[in-house]
Input
Amino acid sequence: MKNKIVRFGLVLFLIPALAFTMVVDPVKITWENLRDVTFKKKWNADEGMFILEPQFGAKVSALKGKEVVLTGYMIPVDIDANYYVLSANPFASCFFCGQAGPESVVSVKFKKVSKRFNTDDRVTIKGLFRLNADDINDLNYIIDQAVAEI
Output
């Protein structure tokens, strides 16, 4: 009887410990997933102009704070600052050229500088997904602590 109690106690002790060591696979997302957003014109007094404020849908909001994997085309914005944008489309037809919407680009904040990317390198990025509705100097979608998957 005493052995059963000890084993039962050991099992109760190990269950929480095992839960913390379980690895959760990142969520593989596509550019289609990021289309779950609409935009509303809003006056920005600081800038003296109307801006498009994102209204994130339930599907894209559910990705907030999760580790995700996304493949796209790299656009170097400021190599010295390690600032890149991942785009659904190559540079010639990306959002910045007027060929797509703001939901087709993601700001990539690398965990550390690992390599330099060239324009239109096709890359798969893994990192923490963040929504941005407030900072007009950054994109609506951000991948923090990003690493390039090889």
